[in-house]
Amino acid sequence: MGLLDSFEKGLERAVNSAFAKTFRSGIQPVEIASALRREADTNAAVVSRDRIITPSDYLVRLSPDDHERMRTLGRALHEELFALMTTHARAQGYSFAGPLHISMEADESLATGIVRVNCSSVESTVDWQGVVEIDGRRHPLTSARTVIGRGGDADITISDAGSSRRHAEILWDGERGMLRDLGSTNGTKVDGQKIRETALTPGTSFTIGRTELTFDVVPVNSEGTAR
């Protein structure tokens, strides 16, 4: 099933028989979904080898008549559009520049049946943050050198008897990561193999003692909060 078919199938749940007569003319909900998808695709930008980012703030402009028709659907239409845009971004490997926001407004310059979508720029809203995830908790890499171990002086402390006080470190320059063992007793493993030093790519998992850690690079919003 194609993606547009998925849009149509999902929107059928919002546009039930009670609203069928509303849409005999003018814009159709699936056309709004398709316009949003095109806008996300057109403005997607490759910002690193592993990251494609697309805007997160979308304004849908409709004729006054079409806007009123869509308004009768209330939250149902908005929730469907939100879910389908999220699914599309996941399928395409996109990351949104911030929390996804979709709004609609009436535009008297537009004729019935016409939809226009505007989005925010990518460059002004996105930054990237290296993180280490342990047991579902993210630890931001806020300096160029982050020491991991069970000692109180480690930047990231893990409670693992199999780890050394200063077990390993991650070097992060804002774009690339490097994992380095600090001469630990039990070693640092990637894919079950002990390493002395290795480059990190987003999604790389490594083991210290019995603790599994994952390195990732995530977008942050304008307030510096990782998503």
Write the topology of this structure.
Elements: H1 3-14, H2 29-43, E1 45-48, E2 51-54, E3 57-62, H3 64-71, H4 75-92, E4 94-96, E5 101-106, E6 115-119, E7 127-134, E8 137-140, E9 145-149, E10 156-157, E11 168-172, E12 177-181, E13 188-190, E14 193-195, E15 197-200, E16 205-208, E17 211-220
Parallel strand pairs: 2-4, 3-5, 9-10
Antiparallel strand pairs: 1-2, 3-6, 7-8, 7-17, 9-11, 11-12, 12-15, 13-14, 13-16, 16-17
Helix pairs in contact: 1-2, 1-4, 2-4
Describe what this molecule looks like in 3D.
Keywords: Phosphoprotein. It holds the Pfam family FhaA_N. This is DUF3662 domain-containing protein. This protein has about 230 residues and is of the alpha+beta class. It is about 25% helix and about 35% strand. The protein contains four helices and 17 strands. It has a six-stranded antiparallel sheet with strand order 8-7-17-16-13-14, with no helix packed on it. Strands 10-9-11-12-15 form a five-stranded mixed sheet, with no helix packed on it. It has a three-stranded mixed sheet with strand order 1-2-4. β16 (about 205-210) and β17 form a beta hairpin. The protein starts with a helix and ends in a 7-residue tail after the last strand.
